[in-house]
Specification:
mainly alpha, 8 helices, 0% strand
Length: 238
Protein backbone atom coordinates (compact mmCIF):
# COMPACT_ATOMS: atom_id res chain seq x y z
CA UNK A 1 0.00 0.00 0.00
CA UNK A 2 1.41 3.43 -0.91
CA UNK A 3 2.28 5.92 1.81
CA UNK A 4 -0.76 7.83 3.10
CA UNK A 5 0.82 11.17 2.20
CA UNK A 6 2.12 12.30 -0.21
CA UNK A 7 2.18 9.11 -2.29
CA UNK A 8 -1.57 8.52 -2.47
CA UNK A 9 -2.19 12.12 -3.56
CA UNK A 10 -0.15 11.58 -6.72
CA UNK A 11 -2.91 9.56 -8.38
CA UNK A 12 -5.88 11.99 -8.24
CA UNK A 13 -4.06 15.35 -8.28
CA UNK A 14 -3.41 15.38 -12.05
CA UNK A 15 -7.17 15.81 -12.41
CA UNK A 16 -6.76 19.31 -10.99
CA UNK A 17 -4.14 20.12 -13.63
CA UNK A 18 -6.38 18.71 -16.37
CA UNK A 19 -9.53 20.62 -15.42
CA UNK A 20 -8.86 23.13 -12.61
CA UNK A 21 -12.49 24.25 -12.35
CA UNK A 22 -13.88 20.76 -12.27
CA UNK A 23 -11.90 19.56 -9.25
CA UNK A 24 -11.10 20.71 -5.72
CA UNK A 25 -7.37 20.22 -5.13
CA UNK A 26 -7.72 20.31 -1.34
CA UNK A 27 -10.45 17.66 -1.38
CA UNK A 28 -8.39 15.54 -3.78
CA UNK A 29 -5.39 15.64 -1.44
CA UNK A 30 -7.27 15.06 1.80
CA UNK A 31 -9.56 12.50 0.19
CA UNK A 32 -6.64 10.47 -1.10
CA UNK A 33 -5.38 10.11 2.48
CA UNK A 34 -8.76 9.74 4.17
CA UNK A 35 -9.10 5.92 4.24
CA UNK A 36 -5.85 5.62 6.20
CA UNK A 37 -6.88 8.26 8.74
CA UNK A 38 -9.14 5.63 10.28
CA UNK A 39 -5.98 3.94 11.59
CA UNK A 40 -5.69 6.75 14.13
CA UNK A 41 -8.78 5.31 15.85
CA UNK A 42 -7.27 1.84 16.37
CA UNK A 43 -8.30 0.51 19.76
CA UNK A 44 -11.19 2.96 20.15
CA UNK A 45 -13.86 0.37 19.47
CA UNK A 46 -15.38 2.51 16.72
CA UNK A 47 -16.31 0.50 13.60
CA UNK A 48 -14.30 2.66 11.19
CA UNK A 49 -11.81 0.03 10.07
CA UNK A 50 -12.02 -1.92 7.82
CA UNK A 51 -15.05 0.21 6.81
CA UNK A 52 -12.78 3.03 5.60
CA UNK A 53 -11.13 0.62 3.14
CA UNK A 54 -14.39 -0.77 1.78
CA UNK A 55 -16.57 0.75 -0.91
CA UNK A 56 -19.40 1.79 1.45
CA UNK A 57 -16.78 3.53 3.58
CA UNK A 58 -15.93 5.88 0.71
CA UNK A 59 -19.29 7.56 1.39
CA UNK A 60 -19.84 6.76 5.07
CA UNK A 61 -16.35 7.57 6.35
CA UNK A 62 -14.08 9.12 3.73
CA UNK A 63 -16.52 11.74 2.44
CA UNK A 64 -17.34 13.41 5.78
CA UNK A 65 -13.73 13.16 6.95
CA UNK A 66 -12.52 14.79 3.73
CA UNK A 67 -15.04 17.62 3.79
CA UNK A 68 -14.22 18.40 7.43
CA UNK A 69 -10.50 18.17 6.77
CA UNK A 70 -10.70 20.38 3.69
CA UNK A 71 -12.57 23.01 5.70
CA UNK A 72 -9.87 23.04 8.37
CA UNK A 73 -7.12 23.22 5.75
CA UNK A 74 -8.74 26.25 4.14
CA UNK A 75 -9.17 28.04 7.45
CA UNK A 76 -5.50 27.60 8.37
CA UNK A 77 -3.93 27.85 4.90
CA UNK A 78 -3.32 31.60 4.68
CA UNK A 79 -1.50 31.89 8.02
CA UNK A 80 0.41 28.63 7.65
CA UNK A 81 1.58 29.48 4.13
CA UNK A 82 2.73 32.95 5.24
CA UNK A 83 5.15 31.24 7.66
CA UNK A 84 6.59 28.78 5.16
CA UNK A 85 10.06 29.42 3.70
CA UNK A 86 10.53 31.03 0.31
CA UNK A 87 13.06 28.34 -0.63
CA UNK A 88 13.08 26.24 -2.67
CA UNK A 89 11.63 28.82 -5.04
CA UNK A 90 10.40 26.11 -7.41
CA UNK A 91 7.78 25.05 -4.86
CA UNK A 92 6.39 28.59 -4.28
CA UNK A 93 5.17 27.44 -0.86
CA UNK A 94 3.66 30.78 0.11
CA UNK A 95 1.29 30.61 -2.85
CA UNK A 96 -0.63 27.94 -0.94
CA UNK A 97 -2.11 30.69 1.20
CA UNK A 98 -4.59 31.27 -1.62
CA UNK A 99 -6.28 27.99 -0.67
CA UNK A 100 -7.84 29.90 2.19
CA UNK A 101 -9.79 32.10 -0.20
CA UNK A 102 -11.18 29.43 -2.51
CA UNK A 103 -14.63 28.00 -1.87
CA UNK A 104 -15.45 25.44 -4.57
CA UNK A 105 -19.05 24.45 -5.12
CA UNK A 106 -20.15 21.65 -2.81
CA UNK A 107 -20.73 19.29 -5.72
CA UNK A 108 -17.13 19.86 -6.86
CA UNK A 109 -15.72 19.14 -3.40
CA UNK A 110 -17.92 16.07 -2.92
CA UNK A 111 -17.03 14.65 -6.34
CA UNK A 112 -13.32 15.27 -5.74
CA UNK A 113 -13.46 13.67 -2.29
CA UNK A 114 -15.20 10.54 -3.58
CA UNK A 115 -12.87 10.14 -6.56
CA UNK A 116 -9.76 10.58 -4.42
CA UNK A 117 -10.91 8.09 -1.77
CA UNK A 118 -11.83 5.60 -4.50
CA UNK A 119 -8.38 6.01 -6.06
CA UNK A 120 -6.85 5.11 -2.69
CA UNK A 121 -8.81 1.86 -2.51
CA UNK A 122 -8.00 0.91 -6.10
CA UNK A 123 -4.28 1.59 -5.63
CA UNK A 124 -4.22 -0.43 -2.42
CA UNK A 125 -5.90 -3.38 -4.13
CA UNK A 126 -3.39 -3.34 -6.99
CA UNK A 127 -0.31 -3.23 -4.75
CA UNK A 128 -1.50 -5.52 -1.94
CA UNK A 129 -0.38 -8.87 -3.43
CA UNK A 130 3.38 -8.12 -3.46
CA UNK A 131 5.45 -6.21 -0.87
CA UNK A 132 7.81 -5.02 -3.60
CA UNK A 133 4.88 -3.22 -5.22
CA UNK A 134 4.23 -1.47 -1.91
CA UNK A 135 7.75 -0.07 -1.80
CA UNK A 136 7.80 0.86 -5.47
CA UNK A 137 4.42 2.59 -5.32
CA UNK A 138 5.35 4.47 -2.15
CA UNK A 139 8.58 5.77 -3.68
CA UNK A 140 7.08 6.38 -7.10
CA UNK A 141 4.03 8.12 -5.67
CA UNK A 142 6.14 10.39 -3.48
CA UNK A 143 8.35 11.36 -6.43
CA UNK A 144 5.31 11.96 -8.63
CA UNK A 145 3.71 14.14 -5.94
CA UNK A 146 6.93 16.15 -5.66
CA UNK A 147 7.06 16.56 -9.44
CA UNK A 148 3.47 17.81 -9.42
CA UNK A 149 4.28 20.29 -6.65
CA UNK A 150 7.28 21.59 -8.58
CA UNK A 151 5.19 21.96 -11.74
CA UNK A 152 2.50 23.88 -9.85
CA UNK A 153 5.10 26.06 -8.14
CA UNK A 154 7.22 26.89 -11.17
CA UNK A 155 4.22 27.88 -13.23
CA UNK A 156 2.55 29.66 -10.28
CA UNK A 157 -0.61 27.75 -11.05
CA UNK A 158 -2.23 28.43 -7.69
CA UNK A 159 -2.18 32.15 -8.44
CA UNK A 160 -3.44 31.53 -11.96
CA UNK A 161 -6.35 29.48 -10.64
CA UNK A 162 -7.27 31.46 -7.51
CA UNK A 163 -5.53 34.85 -7.59
CA UNK A 164 -3.15 36.43 -5.10
CA UNK A 165 -2.70 34.88 -1.64
CA UNK A 166 -4.30 37.01 1.09
CA UNK A 167 -2.07 39.21 3.25
CA UNK A 168 -1.45 37.79 6.70
CA UNK A 169 0.80 38.92 9.57
CA UNK A 170 3.89 36.80 10.14
CA UNK A 171 4.78 36.09 13.76
CA UNK A 172 7.28 33.25 13.66
CA UNK A 173 8.09 33.75 17.35
CA UNK A 174 4.54 32.70 18.14
CA UNK A 175 3.62 30.45 15.23
CA UNK A 176 6.51 28.00 15.30
CA UNK A 177 6.73 27.44 19.09
CA UNK A 178 2.99 26.67 19.16
CA UNK A 179 3.26 24.39 16.12
CA UNK A 180 6.21 22.48 17.60
CA UNK A 181 4.68 22.23 21.08
CA UNK A 182 1.32 20.92 19.89
CA UNK A 183 2.89 18.51 17.40
CA UNK A 184 5.30 17.19 20.03
CA UNK A 185 2.49 16.76 22.55
CA UNK A 186 0.45 14.90 19.95
CA UNK A 187 3.38 12.61 19.21
CA UNK A 188 3.82 11.89 22.92
CA UNK A 189 0.14 11.01 23.27
CA UNK A 190 0.28 8.85 20.12
CA UNK A 191 3.11 6.79 21.61
CA UNK A 192 0.86 5.82 24.52
CA UNK A 193 -2.32 4.99 22.63
CA UNK A 194 -3.48 1.45 21.77
CA UNK A 195 -1.79 0.06 18.68
CA UNK A 196 1.19 2.41 18.95
CA UNK A 197 3.49 -0.45 17.93
CA UNK A 198 1.80 -0.58 14.52
CA UNK A 199 3.59 1.59 11.98
CA UNK A 200 0.48 2.48 9.98
CA UNK A 201 -1.44 3.40 13.14
CA UNK A 202 1.26 5.63 14.59
CA UNK A 203 1.95 7.10 11.16
CA UNK A 204 -1.67 8.21 10.79
CA UNK A 205 -1.65 9.69 14.28
CA UNK A 206 1.59 11.58 13.67
CA UNK A 207 0.22 12.98 10.42
CA UNK A 208 -2.88 14.21 12.23
CA UNK A 209 -0.70 15.56 15.06
CA UNK A 210 1.30 17.63 12.59
CA UNK A 211 -1.91 18.98 11.06
CA UNK A 212 -3.21 19.81 14.54
CA UNK A 213 0.03 21.60 15.37
CA UNK A 214 -0.13 23.79 12.29
CA UNK A 215 -3.83 24.51 12.80
CA UNK A 216 -3.25 25.48 16.44
CA UNK A 217 -0.36 27.74 15.45
CA UNK A 218 -2.52 29.43 12.82
CA UNK A 219 -5.32 29.94 15.34
CA UNK A 220 -2.92 31.39 17.93
CA UNK A 221 -1.46 33.77 15.35
CA UNK A 222 -4.92 34.92 14.31
CA UNK A 223 -5.92 35.54 17.90
CA UNK A 224 -2.78 37.48 18.83
CA UNK A 225 -3.36 41.21 18.94
CA UNK A 226 -1.03 43.22 16.71
CA UNK A 227 1.39 45.43 18.61
CA UNK A 228 0.84 49.16 18.00
CA UNK A 229 4.52 49.73 17.25
CA UNK A 230 4.82 46.79 14.88
CA UNK A 231 5.88 47.44 11.33
CA UNK A 232 3.69 46.55 8.39
CA UNK A 233 3.19 42.79 8.37
CA UNK A 234 5.08 40.56 6.01
CA UNK A 235 2.59 38.79 3.82
CA UNK A 236 2.37 35.71 1.68
CA UNK A 237 2.30 37.82 -1.46
CA UNK A 238 6.09 38.15 -1.67
Amino acid sequence: MPLTFPSHAALPLPLKLWRPRWFDGVALTVGAASPDLAYALDGSGLPVFPLSHQWPGVVLFCLPVTLAGALLVRRAAAVVAAHLPRRPAALALRDYGVLGTGRPALVVSVGSALLAAASHLVWDRLTEPAPVLDLASTAGGALAALALAVHVGRHRLLRAWHGEPPARPVRPGLFWPVAVAVTAASAAVASQLPGAFLLHTTGARLLLGLALGLAAAAAATNLARPRPSAAAPVTAND
